[in-house]
UniProtKB/TrEMBL annotation:
GO terms for molecular function: GTP binding; GTPase activity; guanosine tetraphosphate binding; translation release factor activity, codon nonspecific; translation release factor activity, codon specific. InterPro entries: EF-G-like_DII, EFG_III/V, G_TR_CS, P-loop_NTPase, PrfC, RF3_C, RF3_dom_3_sf, RF3_GTP-bd. Belongs to the TRAFAC class translation factor GTPase superfamily. Classic translation factor GTPase family. PrfC subfamily. HAMAP family: Rel_fac_3 (MF_00072). GO terms for biological process: regulation of translational termination. It holds the Pfam family GTP_EFTU. This is Peptide chain release factor 3.
Length: 506
């Protein structure tokens, strides 16, 4: 069995995902400063949040990749944006993982973004481990949280431990498997490794534990791997409770690399041919070098540095001389990589989100779509002499999946499309910080967009009457710019020979 575990962390904003990420890295030996969230200045932001706007606003808006090893297992952790405006980036990241950790705030339960991300996991049958965070604060009864997960997400729950008291009465976390209680110590009340066995629990807690162990199903590996059951752990990421148990659970329960869907059928990780797909492109991770990194999920084979692979979008092989393994801003050259690993490939725009890389160019991985934007804006350049820089910046950012760019058939103003408002703020911030381009956004007459497919005759006929509502995307594909959802329905009815699609497979 493979010793790779590739997983994502999903949660609503402020549930503690970034802090948990940091503590997992600390436990895995990838960082050595305990509690960087308590540090001052620049060190206060967790290592996975590197973009300027993330540091200013205290939110993760891009997916980071971090690799660490513990007890012979290689963990590839993909940290996803918690904010709903970045659902596209999160969706693509979830195509690259084999399981997920769902973080829930003990006081708030399941919040809207958690539910949305869970549904994406369900679409892909991703196994989920649940971590109920912040049990050292005042919160709801653990039973209430467990029942909400079971009812709202239609998921069997199997608690693997239990908080001994909540909030001010918090005394630690009981591990059902060992019967040990992790105790808080010191002024910070942080877990420093003290565990007590054969603890006599308070009567009310002992009764809760008995009810929990008898009232919920035992852990079932097959049900978990099928996405029907979630093991539940309780803890505090900030105070380091329950984190080592969580790593142990990922190691023991989470699946190794899974087969991936392609146009040639499922590709098994044991296949000899080296294959993978690009699920993310990130420009300017190192502003000093204007670099561009494509993140590739290895699907099969053993990759070796210097190997030639053919991208599906290029049709000619490229040599991968400097593949990178990541720990957020830190990186090292990877000599080899196995199925399940995430490697970064430096490139100058040749690799794009959705590209398949393989030795023979005989297949394409599926399931990495573009989604129709819900907000469309015209771009207004403050300095007309910087048109070329703006075009380059918009192309870069659309390759990353941050925005989509549409070039109208009539008129010169380019239109950007996004799923959420915050993406527009990121666009303006990055144009200025990374490309030294000052631009503004103004209202567009369009509300949404649809990709159009059909016979040449049907497309030509449609173009004659609707040129003012047509644009090309950056691939040159035809797009209908609709003034309203009603407009889409009307045109579909009027043009039955055409397909108006809200998604476009890369």
């Amino acid at each position: 069995m493979s010793n790779r575990r590739t997983f994502a962390i999903i949660s609503h904003p402020d549930a503690g995902k970034t802090t948990l990420t940091e503590k997992l890295l600390l436990q895995g030996g990838a960082i050595h400063l305990a509690g960087e969230v308590k540090a001052r200045g620049a060190a206060r932001r967790a290592r996975s949040d590197w973009m300027k706007i993330e540091q200013q606003r205290g939110i993760s808006v891009t997916s980071s990749v971090m690799t660490f090893e513990k007890d012979g297992i290689t963990f590839n952790l993909l940290d996803t944006p918690g904010h709903e405006d970045f659902s596209e980036d999160t969706y693509r990241t979830l195509t690259a993982v084999d399981s997920a950790i769902m973080v829930i705030d003990a006081a708030k339960g399941i919040e809207p973004q958690t539910r949305k991300l869970f549904e994406v996991c369900r679409l892909r049958n991703l196994p989920i481990i649940t971590f109920v965070n912040k049990v050292d604060r005042e919160g709801r009864s653990p039973f209430e949280t467990l029942d909400e997960v079971a009812d709202a997400l239609a998921l069997d729950v199997s608690p693997q431990g239990w908080p001994v008291g909540l909030g001010g009465l918090f005394q630690g976390v009981l591990d059902f498997a060992t019967g040990e209680v992790s105790r808080p110590e010191g002024d910070s009340r942080e877990f420093l490794g003290k565990r007590e066995a054969n603890v006599e629990l308070p009567a009310d807690i002992a009764e809760e534990v008995e009810l929990a162990q008898g009232g919920y199903p035992e852990f079932d590996m097959e049900a978990y791997r099928n996405g029907d059951l979630t093991p539940v752990f309780f803890g505090s990421a900030l105070k380091n409770f329950g984190v080592s148990e969580l790593i142990d659970a990922i190691s023991r329960f989470a699946p190794p690399p899974r087969p991936q869907p392609s146009d040639a059928g499922l590709v098994e990780p044991e296949n000899k041919e080296v294959t993978g797909f690009i699920f993310k492109v990130q420009a300017n991770m190192d502003p000093n070098h204007r670099d561009r990194i494509a993140f590739m999920r290895m699907v099969s084979g053993t990759f070796r540095r210097g190997m030639k692979l053919t991208p599906s979008g290029l049709a000619k092989p490229i040599a991968v001389h400097s593949p990178i393994l990541f720990f957020a801003q830190d990186r090292e050259i990877a000599d080899t990589a196995e199925a399940g690993d995430i490697i970064g490939i430096p490139n100058h725009g040749t690799l794009r989100v959705g590209d398949t890389l393989s030795e023979t160019n005989g297949l394409r991985f599926t399931g990495l779509p573009n989604f129709a934007p819900e907000i469309l804006r015209r771009v207004q350049l403050r300095d007309p002499t910087k048109t070329k820089q703006l075009r380059k910046a918009l192309d870069d950012l659309s390759e990353e999946g941050v925005i989509q760019v549409f070039y109208p058939e009539i008129g010169s103003n380019w239109i950007v499309g996004v799923v959420g408002q915050l993406q527009l703020e990121v666009l303006i911030s990055r144009l200025e910080a990374e490309y030294k381009v000052e631009a503004g956004l103004e209202a567009s007459p369009f509300a949404t967009a649809r990709w159009i497919k059909g016979s040449d005759a049907a497309l030509n006929s449609f173009e004659q009457f609707n040129r003012a509502n047509l644009a090309k995307d950056r691939d040159g594909d035809l797009v209908f710019m609709a003034k309203s959802p009603w407009d889409v329905g009307y045109q579909q009815e009027k043009n039955p020979d055409l397909i108006f699609s809200a998604t476009k497979e890369r």
